[in-house]
Amino acid sequence: MNEATLNLTSIKPRRTLRDFFHGSLLVGLAAAFGGEMAQAQTSSAMVEMDGLQLTQEWDKVFAKSAKVDHQKVAFKNRYGITLAGDLYLPKNRGNQRLVALVVGGPFGAVKEQSSGLYAQTMAERGFVTLAFDGSYTGESGGEPRNVASPDINTEDFMAAVDFIGLQSYVDRERIGVIGICGWGGMALNAVAADKRVKAVVASTMYDMTRVMSKGYNDSVTAEQRAQTLEQLSRQRWDDAQNGQPAYQPDYNKLKGGEPQFLVDYADYYMTPRGYHPRAVNSGNAWTMTTPLSFMNMPILTYIKEISPRPILFIHGENAHSRYFAETAYAVAAEPKELVIVPGANHVDLYDRMDKIPFEKMAAFFTEHLKSDAGK
Q1: pLDDT of 263-321, one tens digit each?
Q2: Rounded distance, CA 127 to CA 366, Å?
Q3: Count of alpha carbons within 13 Å of 62, Cβ hemisphere only?
Q4: Phi, psi of 261, deg, nearest 5
């Protein structure tokens, strides 16, 4: 990666939060946060479901499969926030109870993007799948909009497991999870605690708590961290006084000279390839104080407790984020596997069908979610 873009040592005490968010500590978020608005089709056909207004027309960034049935669903998490989801069912499912997969991510994306593509593709391979929007984002509930929390987002995965396990066509003893990008870390955290989940895939993963609190390659000093917390803490007074949160600046307004991974993010989120108007990453922004809850909460602390359930890590050979998967893999207990996709960058594993190893994932879940697995 381009270390020149990640230097926080020049931050002065009176620099604004806007200046700070262009620094190293949150450059990972900057990559994910929005940029200029682009044009995209939106649906006018809406239906109310559990208090949410859900689009009924197909507004995904990928084509609808003829091999899969799709429907919108809604369910509540433990905090009472209603989540919106897309349920995908193989058309040839018959009457048997099937293996189910819950899919989330990337961080700041919506279910109409990568998670939906993963879910639909795995449904084509015989799995019941559920892609969902995290709390406060997309079509899901929660106010204020576009705020994230490692605790609440971990709970979102568990709530999705609640929902999918109650469906009559699902074998609740055979449930797996797929987490993409920043939700890869959330998935590992959720599965460590939620023993109902029997296998997990982390694809092109980030540990958002690590990158927000320590910067890329853990480059942030204690002094820089303290300064960041000072600025974010004082932002809370501004938000309280204004009665609403301030939002971060757009990050995908490329001006030239950005590191390649930022160009890669913009190529997905800000072009017809992956743009979606509801995504934080597609021209919108997180609240200024979103990082606060990530700063003191290392979500991979208990990754070893996923064992004896298996983990499959998937990452691109050329991904700037590859070290997240490699260090998580090193700490995780067996059984575990790390697959490096030759020639792939971080964003390639969002949607490049020739690079995402769907057959490998299908084989992984088929092997470890057999009806007699663990018995």
Answers
A1: 999 999 999 999 999 999 999 999 999 999 999 999 999 999 999 999 999 999 999 99
A2: 9
A3: 19
A4: -70, -30
Domains with residue ranges and CATH for the chain = 3-368 (3.40.50.1820)
Chain-wide mean pLDDT for the chain?
Answer: 89
Kindly list the distances between the CA atom of residue 125 and the CA atoms of 93, 211, 358, in Å, as whole numbers in the listed order: 10, 34, 9
Residue 305, amino acid: E
Block residue for tokens 């879910």: 119
Burial (CB < 10 A; 0-12, 13-18, 19+), residue 92, is: exposed
pTM of the model: 0.89
Report the candidate in 126, 147, 125, 117 with the shortest Cα–Cα distance to residue 33. Answer: 147
Count of CB atoms within 10 A of residue 79's CB?
A: 13
What's the count of helices (H) and strands (E) in the chain, helices before strands? 12, 10
Residue 171 · residue 100 · CB < 8 Å: yes
Q: How far is CA 309 from CA 13, 104, 125, 133, 326, in A?
A: 47, 19, 22, 26, 19
* Residue 198 confidence (pLDDT) above 90: yes
Type of residue found at 332: A
The amino acid present at 222, given as its one-letter code, is: A
What CA–CA distance (Å, rounded) separates 358 from 364?
10
